[in-house]
Every structure is written in structure tokens, then in C-alpha cells.
Specification:
single chain; mainly alpha; three-stranded antiparallel beta sheet; two-stranded antiparallel sheet; 28 helices; flat; membrane
Amino acid sequence: MDQERCYICLGTSQDSPPLSTSRDSKKLIRVCPCSLRAHKRCLIDWISDFEFNKLRDSDDLTNMVNQGNNQGGYRFGVPLGNIGSSRYQVIQNQIKCPQCSTPLILFMKPSKILSLHGLIKAGLSDFSKTGTLAILGSAGVFTVSVTALGILVSLGLKMFSWLAPDSVLTKLLGFKNKSIDKAFKNEEVGGRQLGLIGGFPVFLWGLRSSNLYMDIFATLYPTLLFKNPEEIQNLNWKNPKLYLLLSQPLKRLYNLGFSLTFNKIYYNWTRFIKPIFLADRISLEELNEIEEENSELNELKDLKFLKNQNSSNPATQNLNFIQKLYNKIFGSSPKERSIIQKKRIRDLKSILTRDYSQVFQKQKSISLKILTTIIWPLISSKISLILLQTSPSYNEFINNFSGGTPDDATYLSNLLISLSLVLIKDFYNLFIAYKEVKFLSGLGVVEHEEEAEEDEEEEDEEEESEEESEGEEEESEEEQEPRQQRNITIHDIPFELMETNSDFQFNFDAEDEMINTVFNFDGNLANHPEMEDEVELFRKSFRLKQCESETNRRLIQYDINHPNNKLSSLFTTEELIIVKKFIVARIFVLEQREFFENHDLEHEMDYEVSQRHIPESTRTSPVQRGDLNLPE
């Protein structure tokens, strides 16, 4: 049997370590769970290659005084030797076994002098690094700042000269000379003038930006043109500083007009093309409120349509164009007006708080925005020069509001053209968005061949039914006495309308897709315990809307296919609304029960949502509840 050997010197327990003394033990020790053994002397010599100053000052040192682990404790299944009662420093996680990489636990007696020396040395090293970085960083920041300031001053002077001629520019900056070159040569440029020139590009950027800090800077910048408050009090329309002072109020008015006009159009297009964009940015309560209002508006439109079809009231037929237009815009009934008013207030809040033009515009790169800001005054000056040279009427108009000199007229014209470019840009973006809306509205999906054939057959059947209805005899024009309102029961409704059929099934895939769209922003929100009630309410509302769609289809088919027994001859217009709600509740109950039975699910069906679609007078009647087979 081979004897165990020291993995450092390859000697056995019978051999002494190389160059050892009589005090050094020949015993092979084990310091980790693996099979390696070593002489204590060899192990210490191997470990001595490490820098003990770093080990001594590291965070892995722990002071131990008579701790319980010293009394035959175990680590990694290996017994630990006694450290003793004196104070030691323990080193761990620094030196590892070369075979199994298990950290070796060492201990040493502390040295206050060496520790203090290491602490001072480390402090001086950190201080020197920090000081060097601070000096280099300050020099770099100073160099970059001076360079950036020089670039801003050069760029600002160029942009200022594009917008304002020399004589106007010297008035704006407060120079005595009427030439910028002479002002610089005579050293009239101070810190205030340098700040105004260098801040002009930032000022133009602030006029285009919606950032709060940039907006504050753009508001304060024009006030720096005035040396004292008396200059502001003596302002008149011929002072060139006035137009820059009015820049922020004009920006506020333009943004308000943009929100009420352009943004309103973008908002309507977003609702038409990308409704999910709006649904993702409103709360669940607001979404449910909008859905309920839309449902009520649809019911009112159905009722209005039935009244127009079945009623020969001359009061509604003799309305003039203005009255019809008023009813179309504001509603023809108090309830409809109330819903429309709430909807318009909500729409107004939306267009005033969010820019919907970004839905149709790609995010511009920062470099492109900087470039367009720089060339903005250049393009304005070129267009203004062409108009002043070619249009006498425009020249006369500008001279009426300028200070009387050609330079003042050029300055005012450049400002007006700059504002016009902003308006032209917004019209162009609106036109591009219109083209995109038109493109998306005509976007289609290629269906599967079998589904496409089924859709064509359904369309053919609908066309045939319409032709049959057109060929029917016209109804008698004799006036019928209005029937009194009666209590409708299930037995009054034709059986074909109340019975479910295999053609109608809940679209559970579409239901899950809508739930995921509304709730699952991170993939887990719909499964959160606190969202169970909201998800269930949304699910029932979705199914009820499918039932309403199916009910409308049945009512139309029944009315067309039974010319001798039309619904209009069975019920009044008010009763038809009750009939519709009966059918919706009936379909909802039967289809949901069938779904649970087919999937062998235990359930307690809550019909609170469905019963909201049944008139209150009907819900309180036990007979109708029994007929509908609704639970108490």
C-alpha cells in the first residue's frame, strides 16, 4: 500500500521537510476535504509567498477570542484545531487548496505596528490617487468648458447674425458701436454679452423642447437683454428686444392652439387606428367607464333608429337643418347629451395633457434636432430675403410694423418666417400622419381558404335576404293606436330568439388576448391575486358584448325572415329594448353554463354583470327570474 505523501515536497510522514529543524513535525496534516496532505512546515513555506500585509488589512480578517468554534469545531467535514485563548486574527477566503479550491483557514498573531504602518501606507496611496484624479479631472473639465463655451459663442454669434443684421444685433446686445466687428476690436464685449451670445443656441433649443429646465431657461433668457427694469417699462413695438421677450407667451398660445386643433385630430386618429395605445395609458376604472358609455350610446342609437323606422311623428320629420345638426353634435335626448358631455371633457383632458402626434412620428435623433435648430434661422433669413426682394406688398406690410430702417424690417421678417416654418412643419407632419392612417385603415389580412369560402357564403346569404326584404309589400300607412306599456315575459318573445344555437360560441381566444393586452404589461399582472376581481369583471363584460352582437344579428334576421310576424308588430320601441336585454341575459347564462359543463368545472356563476343588462322592474319579478333561469 502506497504511503501518503506531502503534495509539496513529496515526502512521507517518515521524512522531514526540506531544511527543517528539530522542532518541525514530520506529521502530514489535512486542511481541506480532498485527499491532499502536507507537512505543516511545507504548507507554511508555500503560504509565505502571499503578501501578509494585504491579508492582515483585508475585510476577511475576523478577531476571535475564546470562541466556541475553537473547541473541536468542524468545517467542510474537517475537524478544526484549537486556536487557543490568546487573541488571533483569522484569515479565510484568501488562500485556496490547489486541487479542490476550498478556502484554507489561517490564523496569526496581530501586530499593532505593522497594522498602523499598513493603514498609513494605504491612506497615502488612496490620497495620492484621489488627488491626481482630481487635478487631472479639473484640468479636463476646465479645458472642455472653455472649448464648449468658445464653440457656443462662435455658433451663437453666427446664428444671431443670420437672424438680425449688425445694427439690430448691436441694439440687442447693448453695444455702443453699430458694427459687431468694431465692438469686438474695441473690447466692448463683457461677460454679459458673451453669455447672451453663447446662450442664444440654447434659447432656440428651449423654444422647441418640452423639457422643464430648458423651458425655464428660454423664459429667463430674454430678460437678460435688459440692463435694468426701466428698459422694460419703456418698451415699444419698434424695439427689437420686445419680440424676443414675447417668444414664450407666443409659444404658450401656439401650444394651446396646437392641442385644440392638430392634437385633437391626432387623438381621433389614434382612437381609430391604435386604440390599444389609449387603453394602455388609462386606468381600468376609466376603461370600464368608457366601455359603459359606448354601450349606452349604442343603445340610444338603436332606439333612435327604431323610432325613426316605426314612428311617423311629424315633429321629428319637420326639423330644419340647424336643428338636425345640433342634435347630431350635442345629442337629441338629455341622457345622450350627458354622455356626450362627459366624453368631450375626457377627450379635452387627454389632448391637453399628452401629445398624440408622437404616435405617428418616429423619434428624431438628437443630432438631427440639433442640426435643424442651427439651420432654422439660416433658412428663415434666406426665405425672408427672397420675399422682401420679390413681393412689394409683403415689403410694405413689414415696413408698417418695423422700426423704419431696412435692417429692422429684415429682422421682423426673419422672425415671422421662423414662426411660419414651425406652422408649415406641423402641417407637413399632419399630412404624413393622414397618409399613414389611410394606409393602416386599408390594411388587411389574408384568411385561410376554408374560412374565406365560409365568409363568402354568409355574404351571399345576407344579400339574398336583403333582396327578399326589398321585394316585400310596403306596410300599411294606417295609423295604429299606441299600445300601453306592458310587463314583458319570456313567453312573449319568439322561441327562436331565446334558444341558443351551435353557430354562436364565445370567442375565448379573443377574450384571453384582450385580457393579456389590458392587464399583462409584465406577463404576471393578470395572475396577481389583487387583480382577480378586475379580470373577472372584464371577462364578463367582454362576453356580454359578444352576446349583444349576437342578439342584434338575431333581431335583424328574425325581422327579415318573418314578414308576417315582425317584431315591430309585436312590441313597441320601448319594449324592444327590454326584449333585447332579455335575450342578452339568456344567451349569457346558457353559453356560460355550457362552457363550464363541457370543461367539467365546478363553478358558482355570478350573474351580477348580466343582470345589469335586465331592466330593474324585470329583475324584481320572480316570474321573469324563473323564466330566465337565473339564480336568486
